[in-house]
Amino acid sequence: MANKRKIIMDCDPGIDDAVALCLAAAHPEAFELLGITTVAGNQTIEKVTENALRLTDFYGLDVPVARGAKTPILRPPVTASDIHGKNGIGDAEIPASERQAVPETAVLFMKKLFDGLGEGEKITLIPTGPLTNVALLFDVFPEVKEKVEEIILMGGAASGGNVTPAAEFNIYEDPEAAAIVFDSGIPVVMCGLDATHLCGISWENAAALRENGGRIARAVGEMVSFYLKSPAYKNRKAACIHDAVTFMYLLHPEIFKGVKMPVTVDCSDGIMRGNTLCDMRGFVPEEGLQVTVLMDADGDKFQEYLLEAVRSLDGSLRGR
Ligand code: RIB
Ligand code: CA
Fold this sequence. Notes:
The chain is built from 12 helices and 12 strands. It has 320 residues and is α/β, with parallel strands linked by helices. Strand 4, helix 5 and strand 5 form a beta-alpha-beta unit. Helix 1 crosses helix 12, helix 4 packs across helix 5 and helix 10 packs antiparallel against helix 12. The relative contact order is 0.16. The structure holds alpha-D-ribofuranose (RIB) and calcium ion (CA).
């Protein structure tokens, strides 16, 4: 890749967050991970922060971790223990980290990273959990927006939902935060369920990773196998690795189909809470089209590239 992208990943690990981070760690030629910030979502802020520290060590990433919001902006938190397990990463045994989170909260830590940019430099934000930290960052420090290259987020759907028939989990958890981010005027790529439902790892490949791989492959295989046994994937052939679509889009945009359109978030308390209303009518004036919604993906290519990344990270860390 011509030049590396400076990245902040805001996440709630989370099995698919953990696999997304593995994909990023396998591509140091493409990504300069400046920092990881955590947000309550799949599990509590304590657990997702502990997981982020353990996973960065486990993947050989010397990347600081900052603890973020423990609840959505207005609403009580909802975790997903049934899907991601009690520890949040499929109860996989990842060695404890010697490190602590940095003293700053996520918002202050992100502001510090933006302040440290050189002339003309920008950061790409990759949120893979509820958008609370990103929304608070834009509200408290609106000046950082001009230094955001783009936001590649996992969340939403042009049609359907997972946590309810109308809403995807990350948006449902904090719809007000999502509305702030979608309305920020910054280019957003929405990696929603329309594409992420096509992007997964199969039972067979999860078993192959578990049974004949290095430590990274075994851990990823274990986490994905837990995912496959969860209520979300009963009778499904593959587990959707939703969050990995963000980094995969930057590595292989050619395997996705994106359509630019306005997106409005439903912040009501009714049955449509957290719905991302995607306006596909096509006659909205250009300035209203700052969201690229991924509407299709080549799931075979996604799985091939993801498995390749897991094994290559194992290779590069062999002996470490
Ligand atoms: O709906 C899927 C999203 O919710 C993923 O980010 C998963 O990790 C959960 O946070
Ligand atoms: Ca997530």
